[in-house]
C-alpha cells in the first residue's frame, strides 16, 4: 500500500516530469551547482598572487582571459546539466518503482476480490 508521501510524489511527478526534463530548465536551475565547481577554480587561480608570485607572473603572461571565461562557462553548464539530469533520472526511477508497486497492489486486490466471490 502506498503511503501519503508516495502518493503525493506520484501526483507531483506525473504533473512535472516533462517540464523538468527540458534542457533549458535543467541548465537554469542547475547553474548554482555549476558555479559551486567553477568559482573555486577562479579563486585558486587568482589566489596565486598571494602565495606564489612567480607562478602567478608566468600564468598571467601565458593565460588568455577569453579561454578562461569560456572554460568557466563550459564547466558551469556541464555540471549544471549533469546534476539536474542525474536528479531527473533518480526521480524517474523512483516514479517507475512506485507505479509498479501500485500496479502490483491493484492486481493483488483484484485477485483477492475475485477469489472471495
Kindly summarize this structure in a few lines.
The protein has 117 residues and is mostly helical.
Core attributes:
91% helix, single chain, 117 residues
Describe the 3D structure.
It is a single chain. The chain has 117 residues and is mainly α. It has one domain. Helix content is 91%, strand content 0%. It has 5 helices and no strands. Helix 1 crosses helix 5 and helix 2 packs across helix 5 (65-115). The radius of gyration is 25 Å and the shape is rod-shaped. The chain starts with a helix and ends with a helix. The model has no long low-confidence stretch (mean pLDDT 88).
State the shape.
Answer: rod-shaped
Strand elements, count: 0
Low-confidence stretches: none
Helix-and-strand structural type: mainly alpha
- As a percent range, the share of strand residues is under 5%
The biggest beta sheet is recorded as:
none
Quaternary state, please? Answer: single chain
Query: Into how many domains do the coordinates divide?
Result: 1
| Average pLDDT taken over every residue | 88
Helix content: over 70%
How many helices in DSSP terms? Answer: 5
- N- to C-terminal separation? 23 Å
Order of helices and strands: HHHHH
- Computed CA radius of gyration, to the nearest angstrom: 25 Å
